[in-house]
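tl;dr need the bound structure. longer version: we got a ligand (iron/sulfur cluster) that a collaborator sent over and nobodys looked at where it sits. i said id run it. heres the input, straight from their email, havent touched it
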Amino acid sequence: MSDKILDVMSHDRDSAALRYVYPVVSRRAGGVSVGINLNTNNACNWRCIYCQVPGLTRGTAPATDLSVLENELRDFLNELLHGDFMQRRVPEGARRINDIALSGNGEPTSSAEFVQVIALIARVRRETALPQTVKTVLITNGSLLYRSEVQQGLRDMAKLNGEVWFKLDRASEAGMQRVNDTRTSMNKVRDNLIAAIACCPTWLQTCWFALDGEPPSHRDEDDYLEFVAAMMRDGHQPQGVLLYSLARASMQAEAPRLSALSAEQLQVFADRIVKLGLPVKVSP
Ligand code: SF4
């Protein structure tokens, strides 16, 4: 195992030389996030133009070897809890386990074993006596939340101090096609989001950036605010919004056309969201 210190910009999936499990010092989470990458084939059903996955392809997660994943997770958590990994590899000030995060190089809920993966996390959490305060986070584009087995996984996650981060970058069909390179209807997005909120506490994660030097338009802002306000009026309440810009370079062909917004630009939009009555965590 490498002795390289992990820094806040390193989301290197190979940093612990394991197949599925990778540690990340998360700028947003403020500690060590134990990542689980089910998409070892770099396949996603979307192609966001800011996506940082190198060699991204369209598709779904391959079959997961559940026993390999379970052993990796158990061994790695034991190393974090009882070994010297924190001292050797993690900068001072970030030496705490923040969460177990289903994230990685594609859409995690596309794994056919998603429910079994959540059950496995529950088992390993119990066996390693992981503190209750450590969250179980799912970072998802939300597009497969209509599936009953994915909803079951979310209900199970809720019992593990679970949290869903549901991607909502733009709230119009044209905007989603431009930014996420996916064709969908806002009714479908709404139904998927309602399902997520009903199963597990859910945050919206929103990437806000400039394309060809142009920040999101007022129309983009209004679409977003109207979409979220309508959900809330109907009694579907997300926990809040994680609003961020481009932290790392896109690996997509559009990369040269993208640029990050300033903290001030993000804050202007954040202030409008707060007026809806939702907390906003901003990460420039
Ligand atoms: S949903 Fe995530 S993994 Fe998929 S293309 Fe978008 S950023 Fe990349």
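gonna send this back to them w/ a short note. The first helix runs from residue 66 to 82.
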